[in-house]
Amino acid sequence: MAIQPINTTLIHKILPSSAPKTDRHPALILLHGRGTNEDDLLGLAQYLDPRFFIVSARAPFRFPYGGYTWYEILEVGSPVAPEFEESYRRLTQFVDDVKAHYPVDPTRIFLLGFSMGSVMSFAVSLTKPESVTGVVAHSGYIPENMSLRFQWDNLSDLSLFVAHGVHDQVIPIDHGRRAQALLAKTHAALTYKEYPIAHSMSEESLSDLSLWLQTRLDVPPRKE
What beta strand segments (E) does the chain contain? Predict the structure, then answer.
């Protein structure tokens, strides 16, 4: 029987695992950037480990120029607080609902975000590190200007792959380097990479993040 999307806080699409049948699969939640939708990152699925149960979420707010957005911005690094807080609330509940209502292993939940989706991935994982296993944050930043309570001292079970383009003119490389500096002071398992690209993914970064995710899946899951 085909699995139907659940009714939750974010519209989304699912791609069930193509690996041998098991009761609970590792989950990968995809979070797109501004001006796109839940279809945007689904094309990555063919490059990712088939063991993943993939869930691709749509940001909650319409973007005036097409697609959807997680929040409006005052300037790079400064989201508009009410929209950001609403998206954060919805996303944290969405992660909980994915765990509760899909055939996924709640101890093996990964987030993969690009641009604004990366910002939202940082927001969830650094405030609720117990809720996720690993994060791929590509071309984003840690939202330090929001009223979030980051759990800097409780990140020992969290793994992060942070990637950024040196030639990014949308979210400049300084933001990626700032994320590296902050995370390097914690006990999180951090992989940080820079690429000779603009505000985009490349074949190299996609290959690296795919291998990183595969390696993470080969680590025995933590106990609940």
Answer: 12-15, 25-31, 53-57, 61-62, 68-69, 73-75, 78-79, 104-114, 134-138, 159-165, 189-195
